Amino acid sequence: xxxxxxxxxxLTAPSIDAVVARxxxxxxxxxxxxxxxxxxxxxxxxxxxxxxxxxAPTRPVDLALVVDTGLGAVPKALSTVFSRSSLLTPRTVExxxxxDVDAVWLERVSEFVPEEVTAVVEPRRPxxxxxxGVEAWLDAVTKVAEHxxxxxxxxxxxxxxxxxxxxxxxxxxxxxxxxxxxxxAIGLREAVRPSPETAGDRGRHGVxxxxxxxxxxVAGGEGTVADALHETDARRLVADVEALSDRTxxxxxxxxTCCGLDPDxxxxxxxxxxxxx
Length: 277
Fold this sequence. Notes:
Elements: E1 2-3, H1 16-27, E2 38-41, H2 45-55, E3 61-66, H3 74-82, E4 88-97, H4 103-112, E5 118-123, H5 131-146, E6 150-154, H6 166-176, E7 183-188, H7 196-199, H8 207-219, H9 225-230, H10 234-242, H11 246-255, E8 256-261, H12 268-273
Parallel strand pairs: 1-8, 2-3, 3-4, 4-5, 5-6, 6-7, 7-8
């Protein structure tokens, strides 16, 4: 699970020194294996490098670099990261795709991102996600996957419209997982989808819901993908997870590679309470 704190709006995001201290402490803690990349916008990279140099980590931090100043800034940013190999290891370069994403734009992304770094592209769902808009979004997701980039699914954010419906998530999974392509997700806040009474009509999505949904696409099992995404009973999801074979687990992890959490990294206590750790 990636720490995506630094991509929050500047006025609400925690300071870089606080994020670095928390990340390094969690990474070196008892459940450090659960922690993924530290997500950082290109515009905040110089401050991150300065803070990491001051903190002197015992090993390099796995970095997910988010493009927020245009693709043209990527080469310089990556040069900075590679020159600080004792502090950072670049794992992904992540960017939003334009509405009319095509092979030419995707090839430009590939040119900027080295082979050893994964290109992650987020086709943005339109604000007015009617039937036509959803189809256009899914078409963009298909183009991203077919080009060899990793599609990103936004599951939450500052606006209610940032939360996709269950049907939209299911169709996203059909395009990516159904084609044997991996994906990442961002904006997750809970291990399990909260009840409508807690989350409101729009609802929010849980990490375990997505894991079980992907497992049903990979290996079948009782219930449908939509059932898994709708489920709010943690006990049922935990039972489904515990029943997965090692082969299915490997398949799911190869497809649902990581997720970015906001506004703060999810406490491992939630998973420990569910008996999963």
